Amino acid sequence: MEYVGRNHTRVDALGKVTGEAKYANDLCPRDALWAHVVHASITNGRVLSIDTSEAEKMPGIVKIVTCFDVPDIQFPTAGHPWSVEPAHQDIPDRKLLNERVRLYGDEIAAIVGVDSIACRRAEKRLKITYEEYEPIVTVEAAMAEGATPLHPDLRKDNLLVHSSFLMGKDFDYEKAKAEAIEKYGEENVRELSKVYETQRIAHCHIESATSWAFVDTNGKVTVTASTQIPHIMRRVISQALGWPVGKVRVIKPYIGGGFGNKQDVLYEPLNAYLSIVCGGRPVCLELSREECMTQTRTRHSMRGYTQALYTRDGTLLARTLDNWANGGAYASHGHAITASTATVFKDLYNDRIGCRSDGNTVYTSSATAGAMRAYGVPQAVFFADCLVEDICQREGFDPLKFRMENCVGKGFRDPGNGISYYSYSMKECMRRGANLIGWEEKRKAYQGQRGVIRHGVGMSIFMYKVGVYPISLETSSARMVLNQDGSIQVELSATEIGQGADTVFSQMAAETTGISMDKVFIISTQDTDLAPFDTGAYASRQTFVSGKAVKKCALKLRERILDYASYMLKRPAEELMIHDNNICELIPDASQAVPEDENALYADMLDVDIRKFDIHDLPSGEASILRDTGKIPGRPGKVLLSMKDLAENAFYSLDRSEHITAEVTNHCKENTFASGCCFVDLTVDMAMGKVKIDRIVNVHDSGTLINPSLAEAQVHGGMAMGIGYALSEELLYDQKGRPLNDNLLDFKIPTALDVPDLTVEFIQLDDPMGPYGNKALGEPPVIPVAPAIRNAILHATGVAMDSIPMTPEKLVKAFDEKYHGDFS
Amino acid sequence: MIDIENFYEAKSVEDAITQLSHDEKAELISGGTDVLVKIRSGRGEGMSLVSIHEIPELKGVDMLLDGTVVIGPATVFSSLEKDPVIVKNFPELGEAAGTVGGPQIRNMGTVGGNICNGATSADTGSVMQTLNAVLVLQGPDGTREIPVTSFYTGPGRTVRAREEILTAILVKPEDYIGFSGCYMKYGKRRAMEIATLGCSVRVRLTNDSTGACVLGDVRIGLGVAAPTPIRCRETEAALKGKRADDPEIYRLIRAGVLNEVNPRSSWRASREFRLALISELSARALRQAILRGRGEGEPGAGYFPPVEEGQDPREVPGA
């Protein structure tokens, strides 16, 4: 391939390094009004009254609205595709402003003024009275007998959803145990139960959640927002306001990070409403860092009660998980994330008898949990891989060997949703990772250590699906327009959120059209009035799902260009191809069989034969854009016509004027699994509770890489995020649910000095499901890092940490319990 | 936007004192890295500020003929860190300055602000304690000199009156000549931190009558071990005259400091954890100070140093 698989410089590099790239706030008119959200000063209760009379008299105040003024409409906020089946629709459980206070800081009023100081001064003159209930900030408190239901109109108690997935028909743990004892003998069957906990964290994207809104002369409300999901946001704003979708317009410029927080609709509907009630004047709503950390979304904290049954010689027989997720005050993504945790817990290891994986999402009066990079899977893998490690530690198994023998296998198919591995190199990733870290030597070298300084190596593995099909809809559109000079515009609603989407889509367009990268202009801004529909950046879906739309659109454009070339050259289109901005003769290539041989060669090397895959449910027909779709059966010969001459003729020919464009929708009904692993070599200072990562390696199987250096950068970011998740990040609250560390000083994301050199490698196998052999990469890098670090600390110190983050204080306490200060 | 009523850029120390005396609601601002954060958080919204940021005589480090080092209080951390007088005579102060916040903060924040803010966590605070620094305060009624060891009156509180300006920080030659020392900052990460614990240990190694290397003088300054930066004078006295290669000195300092501190429990760290850090960090800082006195120390420690391959932080040097 000519453009796919190369390290092209980011198409937005210059704009971003020079500061020229425009973000939502850069585009806001300087005379825009400022909106200030008033947050409740109680955790659970009800607003009885808000007296705004004194505040309204303050200079610079334009409008104050309270929870008693807003439309009586409840709306959902999740960045999911809408479902036409009411049972699968997201839960509408909040209003623009809420009279019922469900968490500390819930939004109860909004002040619009000339600037933030005027608004803050007015806020101090509001007289607010509340009725207060007992805060129920933990899962235990919310599920206790007699706890106040937070959403009595939707649920009788605070349990949002309970679900149960089984692996193995009618699986039951006790029966499995009986079966195991009968088969292997009681003395050979072993059991382990453990409880693991993960914490609530904030996304910490550098650009705050920010938007500004105005009403245009045609009465259409236009919201410019820092979002991952412009088209979904448009729909949600329309639902929240009770306005038709056509009267809402969302514009998404460059954004400074999202990590899933901006896969939710936040204050943008309120922003639209505030402009409407201010006569359509532009109103800016930019959250402070503190608001961003506590009043948007967070990663679910979870407690997993696990159980495992295995044989004395290291065969995993059965596992169970009972997981309780703190969903916070509002449903946001509902139960989808906890369900994702349950799914991966059961899929990641091959339980010979079976597995039961239960999940519960609970409403509590605390920060709302929503989507965050890898959507519940970091928690799933923490549970699964701590459990596996603890089995190995207890029995003296080698953790690498145990995983090799018990991990999810080639050709695995999830019996519930049907998602399958089409290309599989989990074990190859493990072999490579183990080599890079020096697994065998170090496992041996670190035996029998003494002293205050100790070393350890640990590992973890993961799997991750690509997009959300068939659990939910996967659809994407693309448009391409040929210019007079033979260059093209590419327009999508898949969004660039810093990950490099614009660049890889441009590479794909160049690859399939034959028009070079410098002549492919991608429109980075999404304007829902113009950009064709796509649901946006989440689920590591875009290079796969939106990539299919790009490829399909490029194929259509190619066909139209060749049709026009055929008219100009008076030769059949089948004899022509586009190469390097020229129409060339197509020389049919007899050596087309080569790729298969290459595959065979590669497969031999990797101990995986992808030709013999059982490709069940392989979609067929026009709609499926797969790896091999659109392959040109030949190579370029003589140049016959330049794209520039063709394009100029197509525009201005007196005989046949044709504006060559293509626009397609691709409904994606394919999925596959990506996988990979993390290996860590670290040093622990036991007296100080300090962990120093000496080497960390991620190896990923994400199919063919569209842009290897961008892919590597994506993994770097995920690894750094995983280090913070493992060691330092946690949103803390007091007993009443008031935030303690809602700022970047006290919420400890790793700094550049805390992140060691990162080693990244890829095992690249073409996946037949991907448009260019590619599969998911965006989210996965964060997944295996925390359990790998935890397992390395266990190896170094013999202490199994069962909750993250593993802060120095927690480590010192745990080491003290085991060693009582004597490390000699 | 930050809610400030008035902002006055003073032309001289006298000008600033006059302004502060005229406006009772005015507060002094230098680098602003503490004051502005405080106002933004809602404490003192609407106050007026008198800035001493543009007064050249408050910046820079000088040495007087008698060897007294004069530190301009408006010297920013990044300048202090690289100042040749500091680097040559007591580099641990520069190292402490180098651990403050991040590069932007160090380019704005000043050493005088670090002291006058009154925080127990001030990185330069515990080093100043071990340097016996003297603070020169100028106010409407003239000038007075206060030893830093009696400057603090409580958390965030000092003897400085609102209209007084710290015009110089003095370090006398007897407090640095022949000394070696180190500052160890314990934070949860390696930058952008307020110290969970700050520890400065300085020693003067001498030879006793038998020619053995002994601790001629020892000074231990701790931050976040009490409501203000403190010295551990009893432990210092107990260590004085002890042989530098005697493992006993580490047992002494570990146990000793615990009797002289009073850390509090907060959500940032429990009292128990801070006590554990105080003990361990003091011993390691003493070891590093001795190593440096012997010319073997690690330069550039500051943030609690990473563990290097093969290094045992509890090994007794020279033993």
Provide a compact summary of the structure.
With 824 residues, chain A is an alpha+beta fold.
Helix and strand arrangement:
The complex is a heterodimer of chains A (824) and B (319).
Chain A: H1 13-18, E1 33-39, E2 45-51, H2 53-56, E3 61-66, E4 100-101, E5 107-113, H3 116-123, E6 127-132, H4 139-143, E7 159-167, H5 173-184, E8 189-198, E9 210-215, E10 221-225, H6 230-241, E11 248-252, H7 268-277, E12 283-286, H8 289-294, E13 301-311, E14 316-328, H9 336-348, E15 354-363, H10 377-395, H11 399-406, H12 426-437, H13 439-445, E16 453-465, E17 475-482, E18 488-492, H14 501-513, E19 520-522, E20 526-527, H15 542-569, E21 576-579, E22 582-588, H16 594-606, E23 634-642, H17 643-652, E24 661-667, E25 673-685, E26 690-701, H18 708-727, E27 758-762, H19 785-797, H20 808-819
Parallel strand pairs in A: 1-12, 10-11, 14-15, 18-19, 26-27
Antiparallel strand pairs in A: 1-5, 2-4, 2-6, 3-5, 7-15, 8-13, 9-10, 9-12, 11-20, 13-14, 16-25, 17-18, 17-24, 21-22, 22-23, 25-26
Helix pairs in contact in A: 6-7, 9-10, 10-19, 14-15, 18-19
Chain B: E1 4-9, H1 13-22, E2 26-29, H2 35-40, E3 47-51, E4 61-63, E5 69-71, H3 77-82, H4 84-89, H5 91-97, H6 103-108, H7 111-116, H8 123-130, E6 134-139, E7 142-147, E8 152-154, E9 157-158, E10 165-171, E11 179-186, E12 197-207, E13 213-223, E14 230-231, H9 233-239, H10 248-258, H11 271-293
Parallel strand pairs in B: 1-3, 2-3
Antiparallel strand pairs in B: 4-5, 5-10, 6-7, 6-10, 8-9, 11-12, 12-13, 13-14
Helix pairs in contact in B: 5-8, 9-10, 10-11
